Amino acid sequence: MSLSSLIEIAKSIEAKAKHAEAINHAQLLKRSEREYRKLSVEMQQRVVVVLRYLHGKNWQPIIFHGSRTKEEQAKKVASGHSWTMHSLHVHGEQQRKSQGAKAYTGAAYMLGQHGAYIINGEAADIVDIRWLWEGPCHNLNHPFWNDLGVAAKMAGLVWGGLWSGKSRDVAHVELQKYKAISDTRNPVA
Q1: Mean pLDDT computed over 102-107
Q2: Average pLDDT over residues 141-161
Q3: pTM here?
Q4: How far apart are CA 184 and CA 132, in angstroms?
Q5: Most buried one in 8, 73, 86, 165, CB count within 10 A?
Q6: What is the model's pLDDT at position 20?
Q7: CA angle 41, 167, 87 (to 5 degrees)
Q8: Strands 116-128 and 61-65, how do they pair?
Q9: What stretches of 38-69 show up as alpha helix (H) in DSSP?
């Protein structure tokens, strides 16, 4: 095979790869729009702050996950992509905490000092469309993840990258709402 034939084959492969990437990007953008629409208006407003900040840093952020059903969350747990069924990705899910429970924010700490409380809210996973969780973003300390953490804080969201151990989730941002409960013996409706 001649050198010019090899060059033509290489160009053809490169063109096909770029075409496939463009199709994949289009599908991911549609997915991001669909996941955005699943969020409450309040969460949408906060996520827009995050996305604008990241765009300003020359990242290409998308919403990969918004809300999920309990069945979808169960599949995530079974596959090892999530560690809990009590995710705020699941609409209507509540996390119940008792007095003295380890808390991530000042509001939760204050409520926990005075009795039990629940956390309601919702969550989204935000990634760069070029890599998702792969390539350079496989590194949990990649600059994109750190910028996502800064943006989440600016938007009043909790960033999963601050969590430790198996619960650390660098793509995860969540809106937490706290409610004190006076009687810890009875389940919250």
Answers
A1: 46
A2: 96
A3: 0.74
A4: 40
A5: 73
A6: 54
A7: 35
A8: antiparallel
A9: 41-56
